[in-house]
Amino acid sequence: MKQYPHILKTNSDTTEAAYTNGQWVAGTAESEVQELCRVEPNGGGYLLKPDGNRLDYNWIVYFPHSAPAFVVGTNLKIFDGDDVLILDDTVKQFYRGQFNARVWL
User: Fold this and answer.
1) Which of 64, 61, 58 is nearest to 78 (CA)?
2) Which of 33, 43, 76, 85 is most exposed by smallest CB count within 10 Å?
3) 46-95 pLDDT, tens digit each
4) 37: phi > 0 → left, psi -120 to 50 → alpha, else beta; which?
């Protein structure tokens, strides 16, 4: 069993700037980003944002910690191991934890 059996594909010009050595560094524009990931459907839950608003989502996508940050509104396409499209949706929230990164779609 693979930890990250799916592949995300998106354009890198949609990736967020990175925080490096105390400075924000703009992302670079390149053709296509591919990242290993794992997609799981929402089991009926939701997130409460810091402002108290409810965030409903359909999918959560897990990435290795080293994955780039994704801006809210970015379109992501996720494929299975046979390069079949299984998901095409937009980012609702991004979070980088201690061991992985997560995107809610």
Assistant:
1) 61
2) 43
3) 888 889 899 899 999 999 999 989 989 989 999 998 999 999 999 999 99
4) beta
Cα 13 to its chain centre, rounded Å, is 14
- Cα torsion at 5, 15, 84, 56 (round to 10°)? 80
User: Residue 62: which H helix or E strand, with range?
Assistant: strand 59-64
Q: Are 97 and 66 in contact (CB under 8 A)?
A: no
Whole-Å CA distances, 33 to 12, 18, 103: 5, 15, 15
Tokens of 29: 């524009």
Tell me the whole-structure pTM to 2 decimals: 0.77
